Amino acid sequence: MLIQKDIDLQDKHSFHCPAKTEYWVEYAHVDELRQILVEANDFALPIMPVGGCCNLLFCKDYEGILLHSCIKDWKILEEDEDSLLLQAGAGINWDEWVALTVEKGWGGLQNLSGIPGEVGASPVQNIGAYGVEAKDCIEAVQVFDRETLQLKTLKAEECCFGYRMSRFKEDWKELYIVCYVHFRLSKKPSFCLDYGKLKEEVEALGEVSLSNVRQAVLSIRNSKLPDPDKLGNAGSFFKNPCIPQADFAALQADYPDMPSWPQKDGSVKISAAWLIDKAGWKGYREGDAGVCETQALVLVNHGNAHGEDIYRLYEKIAADVEEKFHIKLYPEVVILK
Fold it and tell me: How many domains are there within the chain?
């Protein structure tokens, strides 16, 4: 267990904006988490669980306790000739976890290579990329109940997974802390290659395999997304908006090249990056807050931007896109104001 007071967060979150927290607390076991929560009640401070802090924008100091999981064990819970059920600790680095599953020949997570953060965030955010979402492999989530101070296992269907959404972000936000995630992976993997240029990149590497899909995804991501350690960012700042079919048809008449993806509910997902680029924001800079030159979804800190600077830029972009296209953009990043 690690308890630190008045901690500078600039090197602990990927935007690297100036911010502090009253307490930074780390735990490696469920028993330590229970002890922390019991003792924290005496301080009457807000508590927020965090992972790799790769999806947070701090617009001010956090006046409370940031709780970071260091639970990093994993094991096989079930196995048959076709699949495995794996339990992974919330504190495991996400990309290291994906790399391990690919190395073992277990399919399901390969398209999610290169996503920053930790395993515990995967069900909260329902992380996704290249046509795959975490929910496609998550069978259950083992959580710590802050009221009963006991572990509880939630089935995937209870979590109401949606596009970058789950009950953990809404009505369970103050109730549960993710400790372990159960993934059902395949020994006979199928492949999703129909998103963007992924199929083309994989074929250039040779056969369709888990390792080649992972390598292709990493190559595409690295060509578009800046390294947070070199240029502060939180990856995709904006969600891709979903609009009614009728609205899409009207837009498509004016913009036939607009990237889009039909959804099961009849709506159409539109590329937020395309909207932002078309509106003229790609590569824009205002002080040290800017829009990435290679990926318009990404807002960046060129060095000395504050969280409020990034937030104001987000508001300007969202307002301009709504004025030009009549489409609202919402943040994928969690904004702490």
Answer: 3
What is the reported pTM? 0.90
What is the CATH classification number for the domain harbouring 135?
3.30.465.10
What's the CATH code of the domain at 311?
3.90.78.10
Percent of the chain whose pLDDT exceeds 70: 100
* Residue 3 confidence (pLDDT) above 90: yes
Name the residue range of residue 24's domain: 2-69
Q: Looking at the structure, tell me whether residues 79 and 173 fall in a common domain.
A: yes
How many helices (H) and strands (E) are present in the chain, helices listed first?
A: 8, 20
- Picking from 8, 9, 20, 15, the residue whose alpha carbon sits closest to that of residue 231 is 15
Is the same domain home to 33 and 100?
no
- H or E stretch including 249? helix 245-254
CA dist 171 and 168 (Å) reads: 7
pLDDT of residue 273: 96
pLDDT the model gives residue 140 = 98
pLDDT at 103 over 90: yes
Provide the annotated active-site residues.
164, 236, 332
Task: Specify whether the CB–CB gap between 200 and 172 falls below 8 A.
Answer: no
Q: CA-CA distance, 232 to 229, in Å (whole number)?
A: 6
